[in-house]
């Protein structure tokens, strides 16, 4: 049997440049942008050219390669010091997705191991490509593990975009959906539009339709009435940061869905690589939540619909307490009924592999 793949790869390294699909323009236009500096990648992350926790981490790893090229060309044997500032700016480009800091830390360890008089680009590029390849492999492992939890004939609901576009190229939540659909287990996917940035309407619906997975797009507020019909078997989402006790930060609206899911006895699956777990963070209350610009709420596209100068709240993420989650699926294994204790056993399992 041929290997299951997504038809989309949101970023690639080509001819010495990072090339990324501009996710702000989807689905109406497919525009690829080229990046040759770490600062430009940091700006692209902030402006959502690339988004989704794992994809942000991979873009950051390639940005470190670009920073090292510049530092070596400008500063020679003191290239390591010259990287401090660009890497610090990169690290703060988005605050909630911990994969960003994870990838920078991973690359920093490679930097530390290199001698000052060695041209760093080739070694760091190998490391960035390894992060990228591992993400796709891990997505596929999570896809298989998550699909095992799904019964044939299931209907699922997803929120935001945790697909190929949000990762190295397969997807976390959509990876499970892709795999379960290929096994004939999923008959329909409900897609929340995901206000205000519309990741569901613009990205997830596009991704699923391209790969011929039956989907229905709905306004976020339709979820409660849908769950009340008893038609949905699983809510499946990704994560931006998972605390050590299993609390999950994900796209704003996820917490509301989890509360609804408990009331209507619908199962809630979170799919994320172990790079998304912040073991230093004891609970969800410690996770920094990004506040994004007011325009995302006052406008749709170029069209303003809110009064001028109205006060705005625009948190990009919320935190779902662990007790509302049925299972967290990682590449190392599945944590059922997540808690500090069950998460710790995942950590120990991971350290013995
Ligand atoms: O603001 P975004 O689009 O970066 O938010 C993305 C999400 O919340 C995703 O669900 C999460 O990053 C997981 S992506 C595999």
UniProtKB/TrEMBL annotation:
Top-level taxon: Bacteria
Keyword Transferase in annotation: no
Keywords (A to Z) from UniProt: Amino-acid biosynthesis, Isomerase, Methionine biosynthesis
Site (Transition state stabilizer): 160
Pfam families for this protein: IF-2B
EC number, UniProt record: 5.3.1.23
Annotated GO MF terms: S-methyl-5-thioribose-1-phosphate isomerase activity
Annotated active site: 240
Record flagged with keyword Membrane: no
Top EC group: isomerase
Chain positions recorded as substrate binding sites: 51-53, 94, 199, 250-251
Example GO biological process: L-methionine salvage from methylthioadenosine
Reaction(s) this enzyme catalyzes, per UniProt: 5-(methylsulfanyl)-alpha-D-ribose 1-phosphate = 5-(methylsulfanyl)-D-ribulose 1-phosphate; 5-deoxy-alpha-D-ribose 1-phosphate = 5-deoxy-D-ribulose 1-phosphate
Pathway noted in the entry: Amino-acid biosynthesis; L-methionine biosynthesis via salvage pathway; L-methionine from S-methyl-5-thio-alpha-D-ribose 1-phosphate: step 1/6
HAMAP family found in the cross-reference section: Salvage_MtnA (MF_01678)
Protein function: Catalyzes the interconversion of methylthioribose-1-phosphate (MTR-1-P) into methylthioribulose-1-phosphate (MTRu-1-P). Also catalyzes the interconversion of 5-deoxyribose 1-phosphate and 5-deoxyribulose 1-phosphate. Part of a bifunctional DHAP-shunt salvage pathway for SAM by-products.
Protein family membership: Belongs to the EIF-2B alpha/beta/delta subunits family. MtnA subfamily.
Protein name listed in UniProt: Methylthioribose-1-phosphate isomerase
Organism of provenance: Methylophaga frappieri (strain ATCC BAA-2434 / DSM 25690 / JAM7)
Gene of this entry: mtnA
């Amino acid at each position: 049997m041929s290997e299951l793949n997504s038809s989309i790869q949101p970023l690639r390294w080509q001819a010495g440049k990072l090339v990324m699909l501009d996710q702000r323009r989807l689905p109406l236009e497919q525009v690829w942008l080229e990046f040759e500096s770490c600062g430009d990648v940091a700006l692209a992350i902030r402006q959502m050219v690339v988004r989704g926790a794992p994809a942000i981490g991979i873009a950051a790893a390639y940005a470190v390669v670009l920073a090292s090229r510049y530092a070596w060309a400008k500063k020679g044997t003191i290239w390591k010091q010259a990287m401090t500032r660009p890497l610090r700016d990169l690290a703060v480009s988005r605050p909630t997705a911990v994969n960003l800091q994870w990838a920078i830390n991973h690359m920093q360890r490679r930097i530390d191991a290199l001698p000052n008089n060695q041209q760093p680009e080739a070694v760091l590029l190998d490391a960035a490509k390894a992060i990228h390849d591992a993400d796709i492999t891990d997505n596929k492992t999570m896809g298989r593990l998550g699909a095992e939890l799904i019964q044939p004939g299931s209907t699922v609901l997803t929120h935001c975009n945790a697909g190929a576009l949000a990762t190295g190229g397969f997807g976390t939540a959509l990876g499970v959906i892709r795999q379960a659909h290929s096994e004939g287990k999923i008959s329909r996917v409900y897609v929340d539009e995901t206000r205000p940035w519309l990741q569901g309407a613009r990205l997830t619906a596009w991704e699923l339709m391209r790969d011929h997975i039956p989907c229905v797009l709905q306004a976020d507020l339709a979820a409660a009435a849908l769950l009340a019909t008893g038609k949905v078997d699983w809510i499946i989402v990704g994560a931006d940061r998972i605390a050590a006790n299993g609390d999950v930060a994900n796209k704003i609206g996820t917490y509301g869905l989890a509360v609804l899911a408990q009331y209507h006895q619908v199962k809630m699956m979170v799919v994320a690589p172990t790079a998304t777990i912040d073991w230093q963070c004891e609970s969800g209350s410690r996770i920094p939540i990004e506040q994004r610009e007011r325009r995302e709420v006052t406008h749709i596209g170029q069209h303003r619909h809110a009064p001028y100068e109205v006060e705005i709240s625009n948190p990009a993420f919320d935190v779902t307490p662990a007790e509302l989650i049925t299972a967290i699926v990682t590449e190392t294994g599945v944590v059922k009924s997540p808690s500090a204790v069950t998460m710790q056993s995942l950590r120990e399992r991971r350290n013995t592999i």
